[in-house]
Write a structure and sequence with these properties.
By secondary structure, this protein is mostly helical. The protein is built from 6 helices and no strands. It has helices at residues 2-10, 12-55, 66-75, 83-97, 104-121, 124-137.
């Protein structure tokens, strides 16, 4: 017991510095984790707003304007965490709307976005980022 006390007295400054560093590191990591959760919540909200603009009527019950839909489809390329869901939604809407008249521009943008998402999904960088995103979720 005396040996432990002597060791603490002689190395007290070093132990204090180490504990201070560990406390600061823990606080920084918790802050980063909180910020990450906030950003994920914002991304979630923005993504769902885009989907709503794509498929839902406006406040007055009018169908969505095509230019708004085209912009929403294009923006889906910027949400790699939702690539699989975006592909499912876009492929389903393409099938559903294929027979509609006067939406060729929208269908063309959907095809371009599907191609771009599929290309990005196959890159090694995307797969690595997806693995880290999945790992960090648990």
């Amino acid at each position: 017991m005396n040996a432990i006390w002597n060791a603490l007295k002689s190395e007290g400054a070093a132990i204090g510095i180490i504990l201070t560093i560990l406390t600061a590191l823990w606080t920084a990591l918790r802050s980063l984790a909180q910020r990450r959760r906030e950003v994920q919540a914002q991304i979630f909200g923005i993504y769902h707003q885009l989907i709503q603009k794509l498929v839902s009527p406006d406040e007055k019950g009018n169908p969505p304007k095509m230019d708004v839909q085209i912009a929403a489809v294009f923006e889906l390329r910027r949400f790699p965490a939702y690539f699989d869901l975006s592909l499912d939604i876009l492929n389903g809407l393409q099938e559903l709307w294929r027979s509609e008249k006067d939406i060729k521009r929208l269908l063309d943008e959907m095809a371009g976005t599907i191609t771009e998402i599929e290309r990005k999904s196959k890159t090694k960088r995307h797969r690595i980022k997806q693995w880290f995103r999945d790992f960090a979720t648990y």
